[in-house]
Design a protein that fits this description.
Blueprint lengths: L11 E5 L5 H8 L3 E6 L2 H12 L3 H4 L2 E5 L5 H4 L5 E7 L8 H10 L1 E12 L6 H5 L3 H8 L11 H10 L4 E7 L11 H14 L11 E7 L6
Parallel strand pairs: 1-2, 1-4, 2-3, 4-5
Antiparallel strand pairs: 5-7, 6-7
Length: 221
């Protein structure tokens, strides 16, 4: 079943570990209902201040819940959301496998699970290209604290096992720039290159981050 949604459809979205809520606000402004799950009280406070400056119509589309990715079962019923985003939160999870299953559980059939993870398999690439050899050596020696739980191959198997098979994956930050050129034309070219490289082998495999998209099976898994 596809996660292609009709353009006019208003989606129910869960943003796990929403940070400052930039994506959450963008989605709410586009007309979607957004629930933000955030365990850090300071970040919740900052987001609430930003949200308070939005028009009432947009504020009404946003709900903020205290908790982390491992708490979805406490707060939400199965099949509650059309889209679940967890962009970085799995790395902080004590049990990534259980957290991942919980994220899939609250997805409706045909819903999209969007994950962004650090690409531990290529940690040395960007400091190495920048000539920072100490950082590159440290990255090569970096202990994998989560074992292989957050590697692409393992996550592919895990997603299939919880009824949300991987549909596509992309590289994010292929060329390692953290800043965007001030010149608008150069910025557009940079983004065009990043987008194309992030979809193609072998470039996406050495990106700083990986974006994984899984789709919940029609039987609910």
């Amino acid at each position: 079943m596809s996660a292609a949604f009709e353009a006019e459809r208003r989606l129910r979205i869960l943003d796990v570990g929403l940070g400052r809520g930039v994506q959450a606000l963008r989605l709410a402004r586009a007309g979607h209902g957004v629930t933000g799950l955030q365990s850090d009280p300071d970040l919740r406070e900052l987001f609430e201040k930003d949200l308070a400056e939005e028009p009432e119509e947009i504020r009404g589309r946003v709900r903020l819940v205290a908790g982390g990715g491992e708490d979805t079962g406490v707060h939400f019923l199965p099949g509650t959301f059309d889209v679940v985003m967890c962009h970085g939160g799995l790395l902080q999870s004590r049990d990534p496998g259980t957290t991942l299953a919980g994220l899939a559980r609250v997805l409706a059939a045909g819903g999209l699970l969007s994950l962004v993870i650090r690409n531990d398999a290529a940690l040395a690439m960007h400091p190495g290209r920048a000539g920072d050899w100490d950082a590159a050596l440290a990255a090569l020696d970096f202990p994998d604290r989560t074992g292989s739980a957050l590697r692409l191959e393992t996550l592919t198997r895990s997603l299939a096992g919880i009824g949300t098979p991987l549909r596509q994956w992309y590289g994010v930050g292929v060329f390692g720039r953290d800043d965007c050129p001030a010149d608008e034309e150069k910025a557009e070219r940079m983004l065009a290159v990043e987008e194309r490289a992030g979809r193609a082998d072998p470039y996406r495999s050495v990106a700083a981050m990986l974006h994984l998209c899984g789709v919940r099976g029609g039987d609910g898994g």
